[in-house]
Amino acid sequence: MKKIAVMSKHMANLIAAGEVVERPANVVKELMENSIDAGASKITVEIKNGGKSYIRITDNGSGIGKEDLPLAFVSHATSKIKSEDDLESIATLGFRGEALASICAVSHMEVLTRAEDEAVGTSYVISGGKVLGVNDAGCPQGTTMIVRDLFYNTPARMKFLKKDVSEANKIASIVDNIALSHPEVAVNFIREGKNVLSTSGDGNLKNAVFSIFGKEFFDSLIELDYELSNIRVWGFISKPTACKPNRSMQHFFVSGRQVKSVTAMAALDEAYKNSVMVGKVPACVLHIDVDSRFVDVNVHPAKTEVRFQNDKSVYDAVYYAAKNALSEKDGTNTLKFNTKPNPQAFFKEQEAAQIIFSTATRAKNKEDFWQRKSAFEYKSERSPSVAASEKFSYDGEDNSELLFGGANAAENAPEVSRPEMPSVGTALIEEKVPVAECEAEEALPVSEDASVKFTAQKQEDSVRVVGEIFKTYIIAQRGDEVLFIDKHAAHERMIFERLKREEHSQAQMLLNPVCVTLNKEYYQAITDNTERLEEMGFIVEDFGAGSVRVLGYPVIVDSGSISAVVEETAKYLAENRNDLNSEFVDWLYHNIACREAIKAGKSSSPAEMEDFVTKLLSMPEIRYCPHGRPVMISMTKYEFEKQFGRVQ
């Protein structure tokens, strides 16, 4: 008895629908991509009940001819692939000819379309893969596709759909990505009768990003446009301080198609290395334009994955595009306040308080109206000898003369000699305070050229160190902005960059070698990599019985930290299978820099702070510590005065 039989066309379409159409969002994606391939400049998407009961896609594209319409719903029928050669350079979003056949097999579908060369449009109704009617209809050029009751004939698949809100959110994400991938197309999204998205379609990616994500996200982005080896990378990346805890805000598009590219993700992560905090990843809206001959998009049923002929070229293009943008356009972090002071509200509150106070005072005076006071008591309460601070509260009398001495106070006031206080920088220059005399617990790096001082700069660019707070943050004024500098973070990055610049760390020999005892696993990791460690400045030898002896160490390392650094290095090598790659080198430099940098809570002398700020501002590339924390935050004079109500 025969066991193998040819599957019916209807059954084959149901299986194909399972691969292409898993949920309403897949329907929206396939139909919107068809609209873009048809040259549409305007697309409207409308859904109800999360797309389960109703989906309508309307475009102004080229439309479908009356003769081609029946073939459009046949499996593997397409106008985009003519020969095998076309598969080598696919330039359209759709090409397999599966979407329409799969969608109509599991829904009630209605199509209203008119091609450019036709005077009358066509209405086409198909349900469950069966044609129910073909009629002439009046309609503008373009196509409208309505999908009702998705999965009505496959209840098992219907059970796997999520709530209406979840399905609608998934569709919204698809619509957003289509709008970002093709900013030249105006996209309108109507959800449950409400227009929730409208893009201009002017071809400007800025406007599309602003419309979809809003002002706050847009303000955290850096624009880039870079080309390398005929690969163009353009779009936006987030500032390091605006990175996200996951990759949900990473949007990559290859030749107008949204994809998930491990190559692009890795390149972007590498570009942000040492600038982003642990556990955070950069956000982006990046377009990667590659010749279609060098990209294979036919590797996934949903066409969300691509394969590049040369991954290295794409990696380099994305890496250098992001790296250059961060270097050139990521400036100092600016401190801003979300709340805007309202002087009028403040005065209204004061006026209300005054009314309440006056009412209470009148009530009290009324109660005490018949009480008598002696002349001595009366004079005592109103005597000018009472301290001004005690008479400052409002009691219905004018205390201005008492506080300020009246109009002739300046003339009658005795002369007081007040020496002019020079700025910190000026005092240090004039008195030439040596660094050795500073009483700081731990010294900041002081530049050798002490002649470089802030007062020598132009007035509009001059920098003045105000002081430090909490023994951790230096405050300086530069023009019309105030700088808040994290001493530890900035010093840590300085040391880190110095270590990276040196090809091999210079070793300093120890008079008394340091013996470090490790467990067997860590001990093996160190003894297996003694040559590589020596290149980094650590001269280590096997001392036997689970111990190693450190004969030399990098000059940048404090001798008191040798044991701890060796132990942490051994742990890293053991956990990463003795892989001494560039990531390990960075980790080691992070570790050394963090240990050797000035610690938070340690006081610094004015001379040290001044020279430290001079050196830091001469290196504008230092904006983040190796762990990704900002080293400096600025606050503009305008933002500062706004908090006091001086400006609006």
Describe this entry's structure for a reader.
The protein has 648 residues and is an alpha+beta fold. The protein has 3 domains: 9-198, Histidine kinase-like ATPase, C-terminal domain (Heat Shock Protein 90, 2-Layer Sandwich), CATH 3.30.565.10; 214-330, Ribosomal Protein S5, domain 2 (2-Layer Sandwich), CATH 3.30.230; 332-342 and 422-648, MutL, C-terminal domain, regulatory subdomain (Ribosomal Protein S8, Chain: A, domain 1, 2-Layer Sandwich), CATH 3.30.1370.100. α2 packs parallel to α6 and α18 (520-527) packs across α20 (562-575). The radius of gyration is 36 Å and the shape is elongated. Mean pLDDT is 75; it is low at 360-370, 384-442 and 447-460.
Number of helices: 23
CATH class term of the largest domain: Alpha Beta
For the largest beta sheet, what order do the strands appear in spatially?
A: 5-4-3-6-2-1-7-8
Oligomer status = single chain
Per DSSP E runs of 2 or more residues, the count of β-strands stands at 23
Q: Find the CATH superfamily of the largest domain.
A: MutL, C-terminal domain, regulatory subdomain
Strand residue content: 15-25%
Q: Biggest sheet, open or closed, and with what strands and sense?
A: 8 strands, mixed
Which architecture name of the largest domain does CATH use? 2-Layer Sandwich
Q: What's the overall geometry? A: elongated
Average the pLDDT over all residues and give the rounded result. Answer: 75
- Give Rg in angstroms: 36 Å
Note the gap between the termini.
Answer: 89 Å
Q: How many domains comprise the coordinates?
A: 3
Q: Fraction of residues in helices?
A: 25-40%
Fill in the CATH topology of the largest domain: Ribosomal Protein S8, Chain: A, domain 1
